[in-house]
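During the practical work, I selected for study one protein's amino acid sequence and its backbone structure tokens, as given directly below:
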Amino acid sequence: MNKHDPEHNVIFDRRTDTVTVSSYNPADIWPNWQEGKERWLFISPHDDDVACGAVKTLLAGMACGAEAFVGVVTNGKMGYCRPEHKYTICEIREKECRESFRMLGLKEENLFFLGFDDGSLYRQSGRRLVENDPDGPEIAGATGLHNSLTWLVRQARPTRVFLPTISDLHPDHRMSNSESVISIFHALGSIWPELGEPISEIPLIYEYAAYSNFPTPPTLRIRVGQELFDRSLNALLAYKSQEQIEITIQRIRDTGPKEFIRELEFDIFDPDKADRLF
């Protein structure tokens, strides 16, 4: 295991049940690394969730040459902390979000706002034609999380997708996880051609922890240098309207320039594997 050199910008650690491997070379740590072709899509249930739980991973990926994309699922309308923001908070939060990702170096055209109502994603599961649900965000004549997330995956065409952990207490986070996974499956096939060209293979999938713990221990640790750490904190401070975020900022300061990720397996049923159990 290499000793962490603080002069280096990024170091990755990957553990298994028997050994932990560390390297400055992402190809040593990230399975199926595609030099010059990495595309990382981060699904953010609310505008600040990536900044809270996956910002160092995003910065590390970009530092290693990956093109990053972010999809913000909800409009943040339930996130007001002052009475005077009750009817303007969506615009405030979008402005803060754009500034935060600008500070991180994300391309403006790689930031997507899907526009679902905050706090009620369970009502937006699946896909419906707009004549059956005129209130949801529309893409290509339909609405629902499957519709928007399938479209987003086909737009970004990611090699890796980062989701909020399925064990998060916030229902919007759990819905963003489960609806994204099935939408990745949809994006692979020929269904709904109006949402774009199908992707050619299923991307690798990971979870990050914005607030709640993982259901099983993380398998990746990302460590960044001081410059990237300071940039990540400054980007989080851009969310001035989110006054309760101070607790998260203090936790991140205490944790320091590192972040943890859990690898997932896209586990399609295999009858042969099941048969070998008998």
About this structure: The first strand starts at residue 10 and ends at 15. Residues 77 and 90 are 5 Å apart (CA to CA). Confidence is low (pLDDT under 50) at residues 1-8.
